[in-house]
Design a protein that fits this description.
By secondary structure, the protein is an all-alpha fold. The protein folds into 2 domains: 221 residues, no CATH class; 79 residues, no CATH class. α2 crosses α12, α2 runs parallel beside α14 and α14 packs antiparallel against α15. The longest helix is centred in the N-terminal third of the chain and has 36 residues. The model has no long low-confidence stretch (mean pLDDT 96).
């Protein structure tokens, strides 16, 4: 079973706890529409994983079975330790490329598109980046790192990064110098001048110190979260595709196929480009005039949707490809509908009625035959 199924209740409980603590402290670290949007991004990311992981892990297994130059034992603790360190080293470079290459930034920008920084932001993950990033890890299969070791250290690296998405934990002294911590990662999510392209590490911040990409959080300059070209939308599908659309448009406007391809491997700002200075005080966060009633409705509907998604992820391995696609379409439609509601779109309430019937029909079609 997908281990994320067991993690989802922990994620939801910790988000509620963080929001409660922030409220008690009078810290405006949460915005309901933004948080729901982040969680909807997380849903779509898990949906894509149902289809993509079969391919990526299948490739890893094949390379390990047919091309490995050594076989490391799973009984040795050192194999696990060095595999985790090696994975995190590769992750640093994957993450760095995710900021420096248009093809990979088009996917990774999803994670940075929130203008808030909290535990829900950690779940704001892309649905489109696996095929570009996964090849970086194949040397581990070539070296002979067993798939069970690779899968486990990848999960550890991913889950570790969850807790560092918070404003409630301040600087941690010597820990900040060795590990990725909330302070270090706040810098990474900032759009302040000194924050751009800094602090890429997953677990260890020492990679950034080694490769000159480290920046320490400044006490006299609050971090402004988000990206320089704001998403300005609560639609997670558009959030996944909007930068791809921009890059496609740029590639169509150049004079040759070679130049068009080159754009995909160029940096998001263009080679040698200098970003304009950002005045932190000038940044205004995206918001809509969504009523409290609509926000409460969206929270309730997301809670129900989270249960549905957890159930789907649990049963997905037993479903046919066609059934998985049906579930994925219904859930994706639900995430889009909630986004339109939060944006105050005129058509949103009509779409929401259709969405409720659609999702209900899918659930009923799978639940009733088993009764």
């Amino acid at each position: 079973m997908n281990p994320i199924v067991y993690a989802i209740p922990v994620f939801m409980a910790s988000i509620l706890l963080e929001a409660w603590i922030a409220h008690r402290r009078g810290v405006a670290t949460y915005d309901i529409p933004d948080a729901i949007t982040s969680l909807n991004f997380g849903i779509l990311s898990q949906l894509s994983g149902v289809f993509v992981r079969v391919i990526t892990f299948g490739i890893y297994f094949w390379v390990f079975d047919n091309l490995r130059i050594h076989t490391f034992s799973t009984d040795s603790l050192w194999v696990w330790v060095f595999a985790l360190i090696g994975y995190d080293f590769i992750y640093y470079w994957v993450h760095r490329c995710g900021h420096e290459i248009n093809l990979m930034w088009s996917a990774h920008q999803v994670h940075h598109s929130s203008e808030y920084f909290n535990l829900s932001t950690a779940l704001r993950q892309t649905s489109t980046g696996a095929f570009a990033s996964f090849p970086f890890y194949l040397p581990m299969a070539l070296l002979g790192v067993p798939p069970i070791v690779f899968g486990t250290v990848a999960l550890i690296d991913l889950l570790y990064q969850y807790w560092v998405h918070t404003e409630l934990v301040r600087k941690l002294g010597w820990v900040d110098r060795v590990f990725v911590t909330p302070s270090n990662h706040r810098v990474h999510h900032g759009q302040n001048d000194y924050c751009i392209d800094r602090n890429y590490g997953g677990i260890f911040i020492i990679w950034d110190r080694l490769f000159c990409t480290f920046a320490e959080e400044r006490d006299n300059e609050p971090v402004v979260y988000g990206i320089r070209k704001p998403l300005a939308s609560y639609n997670p599908v558009w959030g996944n595709l909007n930068v791809y659309a921009d890059v496609i448009q740029k590639s169509l406007n150049v004079g040759s196929p070679f130049a068009a391809i080159k754009i995909w491997f160029d940096s998001p700002g263009g080679r040698g480009a200098t970003l304009p200075h950002l005045d932190p005080k000038s940044v205004k966060k995206f918001s809509t005039d969504t009523s409290q009633a609509v926000q409460r409705y969206a929270v309730a509907q997301y809670a129900l949707l989270a249960v549905v998604v957890t159930y789907f992820l649990a049963i997905a391995p037993t479903l046919t490809l066609q059934d998985r696609v049906i579930w994925a379409i219904a859930i994706t439609f639900s995430a889009m509908s909630l986004g339109w509601l939060l944006e105050g779109r005129r058509f949103a309430r009509h779409v929401e009625i259709v969405r409720l019937f659609t999702l209900g029909a899918v659930i009923a079609s799978f639940a009733l035959p088993s009764l």
